Amino acid sequence: MGSLVATDNFQHILRVLNTNVDGKQNIMYAMTSIKGLGRRFSNIVCKKAEVDLKKRAGELSAKELEELMVIVSNPRTFKIPDWFLNRQKDHKDGRFSQLTSSALDTKLREDLERLKKIR
């Protein structure tokens, strides 16, 4: 790996969605450390936000990071297809959504409790 030239505003560790994200990785791969986001989803989010995929996570400005998190929290408003989301047709309300970090854990626990009641 080549040497990393850190500018004055380079952050080595970012705190995003209650997760520590490594600032030295490319943004697409750094976002995969957030629970609920995979490579394909982070790729499409970066493209929708018009962020350079070769950019390191620590080089992002606050505006770019905020734009990424808005798209992650509301993917359907940015025309990300329903089949791309990780929570399709929720049993309670029938919605399509993208769950991340603690919300994903909560829904998984609720689903397991619901399935235990069936047995």
Note the topology:
Elements: E1 13-16, E2 19-22, H1 27-30, H2 39-48, H3 62-73, H4 101-118
Antiparallel strand pairs: 1-2
What does this protein look like?
With 119 residues, the chain is mostly helical. It is built from four helices and two strands. Strands 1-2 form a two-stranded antiparallel sheet. The longest helix is centred in the C-terminal third of the chain and has 18 residues, at 101-118.
What string gives the helices and strands in order?
A: EEHHHH
Q: Percent helix among the residues?
A: 25-40%
Instruction: Write down the overall geometry.
Output: elongated
- Quantity of strands, as a count: 2
Main sheet properties: 2 strands, antiparallel
In short:
By secondary structure, the protein is mainly α. Helices cover 37% and strands 7% of the residues.
Which structural traits does this protein have?
4 helices, mainly alpha, two-stranded antiparallel ribbon, 119 residues, 37% helix
